[in-house]
Amino acid sequence: LGGQAVFRASFKPDFHVVKADTLIPARDAPLMIGQDFGRTPAALIGQIDSRGRLVIFDELTSEDMGIEQFATEVMRPLLSNSYTGFGMFMVADPKGRDKSQVNEDSPFDMLKRLGYSVYPAPTNNIDPRLRAVEQLLLHQVSGGPQLMISDKCVTLIQAMKYWYRYRRKTTGVLEDKPEKTHPWSDVADCLQYMSMSTNANYLGKVMNAMRPKARKPPPAIGGWT
Asked: Do the Cβ atoms of 221 and 159 come closer than 8 Å?
């Protein structure tokens, strides 16, 4: 019965997909990593540039592994080899704050213990997530796209073109929510978390939280102030 691509009307491959060798991360801005959890964790590595564009440089997908294995065996090698010296933070599925039924660790706890700065995306509600992506796709900056995707991100591009879609019911009517089809919905979720996080208020809170906190002076001794 097929289905209908979620972003069929707004995603234009010839416009939004850019050759990887033309996308160079800026050293004066942190990388943003969109992170999805579950047993098939996925991540997108991108950056908000000085012109307010969201640029997606790389994608990572997985099969049947937990977030700790994904972070150490899949993500860390890429970050170490290609993005050494960059500041970075993660925006992730807010449900990642939920504690495991096996132990007291949440996915957020696990990532923080591994040294990552991780923050929950503003919401997990699907409607604002999809709207955030649509807004970026439809907006232009100086005649070019506000959302730029490297041609290395093959899974994300396939998701945007075809495979992140609304399933069609036997009646011919489309489902209300996109299908959860691995790996396309995984990277689409990552893009949604990142797109919502380009909001100036949210981003400002994250940047403020990332700043080193000033150390309090030691208490006065002997009555001197």
From this structure: no
Q: Residue 45: count other Cβ atoms within 10 Å of its Cβ.
A: 27
**In the structure encoding, which two tokens stand for residue 147, read together?**
């959302």
Pairing of strands 54-60, 147-150: parallel
> d(Cα 116, Cα 89) in Å, to the nearest integer?
7
CA distance 208 to 111: 20
Per-residue model confidence (pLDDT) at position 212: 66
Count other Cβ atoms within 10 Å, centred on residue 118.
19
User: Per-residue DSSP letters for 132-192?
Assistant: HHHHHHH-EETTEESEEEETT-HHHHHIIIIISEEEBPTTSPBPSS----TTHHHHHHHHH
Q: What are the structure tokens assigned to 37, written together? A: 């959890």
Give the residue from 181, 196, 43, 35 showing the smallest Cα distance to 131.
196
pLDDT over threshold 60, residue 220: no
Is residue 213 predicted with pLDDT exceeding 60? no
Round to whole Å and give the CA distance between 170 and 56.
36
Tokens of 173: 């009517």
Residue 140: strand pairing partners: 145
In this prediction, residue 222 carries a pLDDT of 45
- With 0.85 as the threshold, say if the pTM is over it: yes
